[in-house]
Amino acid sequence: MEAVAVVPKLPTTLDDLEEGDILRIPATWDEYLDLAGETDYTIQYLHDEIIIMSQATVTHEQLVIRLGKLFANYFDELDDYLVLGSNVRIVMPDQPADFQADLSLVHGAPDFGLTPAGRESRVRLTNPEIVVEVLSKGTRRFDLGPKLSVYQTVESLKHVLLVEQNEVSVQVYSRTNHPDQWLLTRYHNLADVVPMGDFALPLTDLYRKIDLSA
Predict the structure, then answer these.
(1) 141 and 111 part of one domain
(2) From CA 52, how far away is CA 139, in angstroms rounded?
């Protein structure tokens, strides 16, 4: 008798996950591709696991919108840059990994990956220059560990910006002249300005109206 594949059981909603929590479900890459797009929430994939994030906090969404505004204000004046939101996936052509960053920046024409059916996808990006993640208590270990490691294998990527939501704290990983070597710089003061190439991000603007006491 031919074996029947057992499709991983995913939660119907994210209501039972605490804010900032992360859920991992073992699955093959093919099982993930079968399920991608079938849920009402975002799923990601890495290291033989489906990764499910809980609903974002208000502070998280404040920071994402603020980051989008600050990036767009600068890069919209440059014809060859695109600022993209979290519904665009970051894919690695040579390994089974599929992520959604909170924000990404593309220099030049977007290079799109393929859908599971083999067609070009307009939401699966392979060539970001900057990716941004707003960290939370539950996702920090994943964002700073395996997700960051995979990001650093993307050849086009120059900067990974990691933003804390409960304190003034930003980390930037910047690729050096040696492709596999990255420089980490941390910023903790509102007066700091974070450089990423020609773009400068003032932390006083980023954390404006953010209730850090929460």
Answers:
(1) yes
(2) 10
End-to-end CA distance of the chain: 57
Using one digit for the tens of pLDDT, what is the confidence trace for 49-88? 888 776 778 999 999 999 999 999 999 999 899 999 988 8
Taking only the tens place, the pLDDT of each residue in 122-178 is 788 999 999 999 998 877 888 898 889 999 999 999 999 999 999 999 999 999 999
Domain range spanning residue 198?
58-206
Q: How many Cβ atoms from other residues are within 10 Å of residue 146's Cβ?
A: 15
Using the 8-state DSSP alphabet, how is residue 78 labeled?
Answer: S
Instruction: Tell me: do 68 and 115 sit in the same domain.
Output: yes
pTM: 0.85
Return the ∠ at Cα 81 (arms to 75 and 84), rounded to 5°: 85
